[in-house]
Amino acid sequence: MSALRLISNRTSQQALSNSDYTWEYEYYEYGPVSFEGLKAHKYSIVIGFWVGLAVFVIFMFFVLTLLTKTGAPHQDNAEPSEKRFRMNSFVADFGRPLESERVFSCQIAEESRSLFHFCINEVEHLDKAKQSQKGPSLESRIHFQEVPRSSGMLEEDLNCLTKFNIPNFVNTEQNSSLGEDDLLISEPPIILESKSVMQSSHRILD
Amino acid sequence: ENISGFSLNVTDCTQVVVPEEVFFTVAAAGILENLLVLIAVIRNKNLHLPMYFFICSLAVSDMLGSLYKTLENIFIILCKMGYLTRRGDFEKKLDDAMDSMFILSLLGSIFSLLAIAADRYITIFYALRYHNIMTLRRALVILAIIWTFCAGSSIAIALFSYEAATVIPFTILFPLMMFFILCLYVHMFLLARSHAKKIASLPTSTVHQRTNMKGAITLTIFLGVFLCCWAPFVLHILLARFCPHNPYCACYMSIFHVNGTLIMCNAIIDPMIFAFRSRELRSTFKKMFCCAR
């Protein structure tokens, strides 16, 4: 290791030649270190380092959990305006493709059609059932199962998604109680509405 | 007088030796696991996405780290058995090459984690334009730039490791990157928390407070694992440069092999907390193993 070579060059300059460095499993090149008159325990750096690291990690954890409980108030003021902007842009972009969906689905093969049926069903469900939030998530989960089978169709899917002006995300579940995983993005989510934006970012860190 | 280089004091801190079997097992497990992740991403076309390419980059750097340790151990065994001389030029060059491989692995890990965090950040805050911002080509270009920079710096650091000018930036880069990644994740976390509040304020919402705890736990695991596995080694490099004769520093440096094993453990843990979270990747694994039978 380079650190090892560094030491051997510095400590062995007086006695040994510069080319006389060795790979040692036991690093004797550290030179004469006297262990006389130590005030603290000899492993104090080791202990101090690990204790400090543990304290830091626990401190970070508590800060993060505190952020969940309280949180900065100015964040809440800044968010609604951004949300409204996103909602407006989304509705504007999403207004068009509902009619042209049938045109698209005729041109594309069977598998990718399932993806768009997923999209349209998702929108329909979210429109109808605004009160119950578990409904659409179940629907979307069922439809999402079809997507992985379309192995060759992903490029076309991506192209159609750009035409739909939807980013390359699929939002499958709303509650963490439904899913086994998805801590910090396991799947790229399709966001269909502003609520889905909120849900995905909420889901992402759950 | 002759400075023999041996310290014969009884209260010495002797090298803490990790058994070779443990070393090789941990290294082999790390290499295999990351290789599986790479194969799964290459074989499944659904996984040809920027997010998975960054995870692959992390897997490659973990593999390099474990490979380095394995090769180093093999060469030390060969030295002990007498097949290689200890002072030859060839061995020196080999040692240089392996050192640069290790530093490449460390830098690659840091930058891959940064890329993953930035990708997730763009996912959340630029959700509508994510597909246009992070195209496949751009992701590949970013990865090419990262790895070229890491390769160049690792060769430079390995060649000029005697200078303080290389050690100090190397050790400053580590906490700086960690801090930056932490900031990105905390910002995402704050947004998720405020959205959770909004959802919870809806009349029929069933989101519980405990889901926010999960986010804190996840984030702590991410950063805690990286810190605990790499920081001991970085501290070792610092101490070796600045206080090699201090007895306390020497006692810390005697656990060098434990630090190396920790780095290999990081290679094993990283796929579990990044790659195996993805349902798609797990189903690809199942298909691979079912077909192999």
Automatic annotation (TrEMBL), chain A:
Entry's localization field: Cell membrane; Endoplasmic reticulum membrane
Pfam families: MRAP
An example Gene Ontology molecular-function term: type 3 melanocortin receptor binding
Transmembrane regions: 43-67
GO annotation, cellular component aspect: endoplasmic reticulum membrane; plasma membrane
Stretches of the chain forming a coiled coil according to its record: none
Keywords: Cell membrane, Endoplasmic reticulum, Membrane, Transmembrane, Transmembrane helix
Keyword Nucleus belongs to the record: no
Topology class, membrane: Single-pass membrane protein
Single GO biological process annotation from the record: regulation of adenylate cyclase-activating G protein-coupled receptor signaling pathway
Family: Belongs to the MRAP family.
Protein name: MRAP2 protein
From TrEMBL, chain B:
Pfam families noted in UniProt: 7tm_1
Keyword Transmembrane helix: yes
Compartments in which it is found: Cell membrane
Subunit and interaction comment: Homodimer. Interacts with corticotropin (ACTH). Interacts with MRAP; this interaction targets MC2R to the plasma membrane. Interacts with MRAP2; competing with MRAP for binding to MC2R and impairing the binding of corticotropin (ACTH).
UniProt xrefs under PANTHER family: G-PROTEIN COUPLED RECEPTOR
Matching InterPro entries: ACTH_rcpt (IPR001168), GPCR_Rhodpsn (IPR000276), GPCR_Rhodpsn_7TM (IPR017452), Melcrt_ACTH_rcpt (IPR001671)
Cellular component terms per the entry's GO annotation: plasma membrane
Membrane topology designation: Multi-pass membrane protein
Function: Hormone receptor primarily expressed in adrenal cortex that plays a key role in regulating adrenocortical function. Upon corticotropin (ACTH) binding, facilitates the release of adrenal glucocorticoids, including cortisol and corticosterone. In addition, MC2R is required for fetal and neonatal adrenal gland development. Mechanistically, activates adenylate cyclase (cAMP), the MAPK cascade as well as the cAMP-dependent protein kinase A pathway leading to steroidogenic factor 1/NR5A1-mediated transcriptional activation.
Full protein name: Adrenocorticotropic hormone receptor
Main location: membrane
Similarity field: Belongs to the G-protein coupled receptor 1 family.
G-protein coupled receptors family 1 profile domain segment(s): 33-274
Regions that span the bilayer: 22-42, 49-68, 102-128, 140-162, 168-192, 213-235, 255-276
CDD domains given in the database record: 7tmA_MC2R_ACTH_R
Keyword entries, A-Z: Cell membrane, Disulfide bond, G-protein coupled receptor, Glycoprotein, Lipoprotein, Membrane, Palmitate, Receptor, Transducer, Transmembrane, Transmembrane helix, Ubl conjugation
GO MF annotation: an example: corticotropin receptor activity
